[in-house]
Amino acid sequence: MEGSIIDKNKYILPQVVRCYDVDSRMRMRPSAFMDYAQEMAYQAAEAMGFGYEAMIKGGKAWVLSRLNFVFDRAPVWGEEVLLQTWHKGPSGPFYVRDFKVTDESGAKELIRGTSSWVIMDVEKRTMVRTSDLVALVDPASHRAEDAIVQNAQRLMLPKGAGLTLAGTHTVGYSDIDIQKHTNNARYVLWAMNCIDCDLLGDHPFKELTINFNHETKAGDVVELWTLRDGLSFWIEGKNNGNQVFCVKVNLYE
Q1: Structure letter (DSSP) for residue 173
Q2: What residues pair up with 6 in beta bridges, in sequence order?
Q3: CA atoms in the 13 A half-sphere facing the CB of 140
Q4: 152: buried, middle or exposed (CB in 10 Å: 19+, 13-18, 0-12)?
Q5: How much is the pLDDT for 200?
Q6: Which of 26, 169, 184, 225 could form a cystine bridge with 236, CB 3.0-4.6 A?
Q7: Is the pLDDT of residue 229 over 70?
Q8: Cα–Cα–Cα angle for 162, 164, 170, nearest 5°?
Q9: Is the sign of the CA dihedral 40, 44, 50, 51 positive or negative?
Q10: Beta strands in the chain (DSSP E)
Q11: Do residues 63 and 37 lie in contact, with contact meaning Cβ atoms separated by under 8 Å?
Q12: CA separation (Å) from 153 to 72, 79, 114, 146, 192?
């Protein structure tokens, strides 16, 4: 990507926060960061030889499984920032990729994130073991730096949680990605839309963890179930009884 650099396996891209990335208070939306993170992940992997084109030739694709990110301060409309990403290699069944958004100088951290990915056999729709991919994902491309020390966790709804149906969403044209299923950032968008706008205005977004459990495609109807505990929110997406995704959102006091 034009303007990007790779420094010791870290992919860095200058970016100006656009008007369509922010909310009514001019603060970057969580779903906008998701858009940035996905694009950065694809671009960085492509630059290092294991991106979409290289994977799809072998009938494989990267699939995001878990993500956790924290807004220390939301970037605002017109602000110049640095988007940064690097991958840390395999961890169990996952490959781990971290992210940072900093101010223009790189000195001040604004957003920190960590993500866990699996590699899927596109035809069989099954996971490929990380041990089978050493030749493709060169260990020399790993970077031992933590944006967030702990990997994104598996979410479990609180026992006995009484969730409330907030609404449904029918997957349509604007939700579908190049793999012909729902783009991951759309789930974050749907989840945030389950939280009251005025509340989000008064209590800025702090942290989000999301697990992606089942894919959805055009025409699928996703039920959105919610649970509030103070300034923490759980949002579960379900289709035909299956948990599609699960999100936990925390807001600042």
Answers
A1: G
A2: 11
A3: 4
A4: buried
A5: 95
A6: 225
A7: yes
A8: 135
A9: positive
A10: 5-7, 10-16, 60-71, 80-91, 94-103, 109-121, 126-128, 164-170, 205-212, 221-229, 232-239, 242-251
A11: no
A12: 20, 31, 10, 15, 19
Q: Which amino acid is located at 112 in the chain?
A: R
Residues 6+ apart with CB under 8 A from 104: 14, 80, 81, 82
Q: Which of 128, 111, 110, 132 is nearest to 119 (CA)?
A: 128
Alpha helix positions (H), 11-66: 30-47, 52-57
pLDDT in tens, 40-95: 998 998 888 877 777 778 787 788 999 999 999 999 999 999 999 999 988 988 99
**Cβ neighbours for 170, distance < 8 A, ≥ 6 positions apart:** 219, 220, 221, 222
Q: What is the DSSP letter of 180?
A: S
**What SS3 state is found at 147?**
coil
- Which residue from 186, 251, 218, 244 is spatially nearest to 34, judged by alpha carbons? 186
Q: What is the pLDDT of residue 97?
A: 96
Residues 99-131: tens digit of each pLDDT: 999 999 999 999 999 999 988 877 777 777 766
The larger pLDDT score, comparing residue 140 to residue 103, is at: 103
Better pLDDT: 57 or 19: 19
Measure the CA angle with vertex 211, ends 210 and 217; round to 5°. Answer: 105
For residues 196, 197, 199, 205, the Cα torsion angle rounded to the nearest 10 degrees is: 110
Q: In the prediction, which pLDDT does 31 show?
A: 96
Q: What is the pLDDT of residues 171-195, one digit of tens each?
A: 999 999 988 899 999 999 999 999 9
